[in-house]
Predict the structure.
Amino acid sequence: MPDVSFTVDGKKLTAPAGTLLIDACKSAGIEIPAFCYYPGLSLQAACRMCVVRIEKMPKLQTACTTPVAEGMVVVSESPEIAQARKSTLQLLLGNHPLDCPVCDAGGQCELQDMTFKYGAADSFYAEPKNHREEQQWSPVVFFDRPRCILCYRCVRMCGEGMDVFALGIQNRGSSSVIAPNVPAELSPEHLPHVDCEQCGMCIDVCPVGALTSGTYRYKTRPWEMNHVSTICTHCGDGCKTTLGVRSTSEGSEIMRGDNRDKSGMNGDFLCNKGRYAFDFANQPERLTKPLVRQPDGKLKPVSWEEALTFAGNKLRELRDTRGAASIGVIGSNRTTNEENYLLQKFARTVLGTNNIDHHRTADYVTLAVALQGSANRLASQRDVLTAQNILLIGGDPTNQAPLTAWNLRTNVRLNKAKLFIANTDEIKLRRQAKAFIQVAPFAYNSFVDYLAGDDASANSASVSAQADQLSDFRAAVVEAESLLVLVGNELRDGELTRLINTLPNAKFACIADYANSRGASDMGLLPDMLPGYQPLSGSALAEEFHTPAQPGLDMLAMFDAANSGALSALYVVGSNPVAHYSVDPSALQNTFLIVQDMFLTETAALADVVLPAANLYEKSGSVTNSYGDLQLVSKAADKPGTRSDFELIVRLADKMGHPVKSLVPFGKGLRADMGQSRGAQSGEADRHAVWLTANNLEPKVSPFDSFAILDEIQRVVPGYDKLRRLQLLSGNDQHIAPASSGLVQIENRKNLVLPSSDTLFTSGSLTKYSPMLLDIQKHQQREVADHFAEAD
Amino acid sequence: MAAVENTLFSPQTAARFDKLVTLYPIKRSALVPMLLYAQDEVGYVSDEVVAEIAKRLDLLELDVRNVLSYYSMLRTKPAGKYNVQVCTNISCMLRGGYELLDHCKSTLGIGHKGVTADGMFSLEEVECIGACCWAPAVQVNYDFHDDLTPAKLDAVLETYREGRGTDVH
């Protein structure tokens, strides 16, 4: 659009034609207050706060609905405007309770700020206030009706943003009220509530304290918390969540999560889990003391020294007596890249085995191999918000990757992107789709064949779709000038490769299930590949590690080996394979099992040594989301009695008698030569130290500083070599494309992808330790049961 | 074929609704007339009516409730057999609308939006009903009675009580 020039408060401004005056002013640093206006949502012009004087227009105009025009002359602040805004505030305050000292929004309330600015302390409205009791709409949504200023942000956010439409407006005029979709008369206890995705976006956008969150309300004040931006530990979307953290007598505790600063790729979006499901961190069942199994068969709390010495000695003994190949290592989807890299380095160099695996939730190996050597074929999460044509094949982002779903909806709504969906189920996102094909059960294979041009597979690909629907769909997808393909974890191996080959110009992303599923894969928690999907032999890294050229045991093979007595020891970091893979507990009875976890999970309960670990909110490092966007994880909370997985791996190596410096190159001193004199390998930690010094940051000299290994990751993992440290440390995301060339297609490889099928209200093994998630599940079940009762 | 199976409404009304949906470029435009006709037939807008109308118009029940609650002439509870609507807007007010309202309250023994124990009458204070020239005016169900005094109103109520009034039910 061509630019137009206009004047605001005597300042000459230009903005593209069609820009709203309020946005144009904001870009120029001129603040125009508004309650009802919200970027990205439809216009409401309900609050009358954004009124400005525009020359040649008879009355004050709302800046939120006025597009800029050539030659427009605007006054944004004058006594007349201040008076108009003050009157609006007086009206709003007419029935607004002045309970700011106890209100959750106190201190971060837009109404409070505006009253402070325009001084509407005196009021003409002397009528008694109309009080209503607050209502609990769900375990996480509370509504305090008199505080509501009827800006309708929540209604629009729920409908347009979330495509849920759980909130409406009822009655008229001054008795208007925000109403949830289950009215009192239809609920069993005669109280209104919401049947929705429980994302809390309505609470997030509420400019006042009318909607408050069940987990945060009346707990603390905003100014009593520190706010730490970090990455959500739940799904693989990589949302940034700003955690409000408060000191407690023994550490620090997370009080709430939101992203009001819109700092991450998710803008202000967070789903239920990102916003509320941090409560597992303070569960009473949380392990805070190392446990060692005693001769009587019971786990007993012991000191760290005792537990680590016992585990280290035993592990060394088993390695030396029964061989490295008899030891297995299982990594996590929720630990940082640094920890994952360190764990595989531990397995390959300290133990000397390739027996390492993790719970794989998407086929990144195939993705990397199929796309190797091609540039610009791996999509970032940011592409989902801007791509013009998108094919979603498999997966259900609404439930499994809520930010992806949010971005898809936003892109369709605001940018008119074309979304094509092929799925075996009628997923909710089909409401945004230009075309939807219901694929026959287990027939993604045939569908990919059909896309590739095999007309004969049309019948097996879809039962319900007509022939012309299918051919239109294929034509639109194949002929699209630019295409983004999002692949659910139903598609793997050959199907995925064929899909990638069928659409040679498209960008691809595989949707995985956890915060660092992609990172676990990239960092080489795989028995047959080194970090960056490099082959076990022939690469420089393989030589450096001196790893066996033979692939190690995968997850299932490890348990088979345990069953047959061939697995002498198993080291499990932040994973619960016994539950995920339904392993018979007796399989592990002759295996020395070390488990690092937060809780006594099904796996930890079988262990000989249990080491209490910190979670992702209690450590620093980096994670890579499903799309390959690398982001910084910052330490927010602190739980005494736990240690980071990084520290535990290093300590275990130390107790095994391994020189720690060869595992984690840390420290400065004599090695501070920036790698110039003795080759690139020698200066690693120092490069980091030099960089830190240059940026006025304290150089870390501890072997437990996870950044000490980041240099090595940058050096040896293709794709990660391009990461920019300043970007990472400033909390920005950067897209990593690990597909280097020279990757080898392994024949007859078992991909072993096991989708965890999490929903909006489950998060793997963490689910049962989050009271909030359990509450919500109960709430949702009751809603579903009610609907069934109605249908009868 | 009928748009909705096992409809709540009479065959005539159901057929009327089937047609109503086709009359507008957007289906939901039929919402307000549909609510009014449904209320005339059922007597009030019940939860079942809300559910069926939502189904007919592809709306959420919440959407129907949003609109339903906006209009004061749509009710969600049964009214009396004869719904007495007394206008108290300016012309009627000047010519004794409030006297009529007070008179109704005392003779029927009910207040605004009340229903008599026998279910015969209900009372409502309403905004302008468009009979300003013959103020004060009262509307009973769909019938107008104008240029009233308390005595004349007694006679009007009496005709209904004796069953000689028009009955839309």
Observations:
- Residues 669-680, 788-792 of chain A have pLDDT under 50 and may be disordered.
- Residues 128-282 of chain A form a domain with the Alpha-Beta Plaits fold (CATH 3.30.70.20).
- Chain A touches chain B through 14 residues (CB under 8 Å).
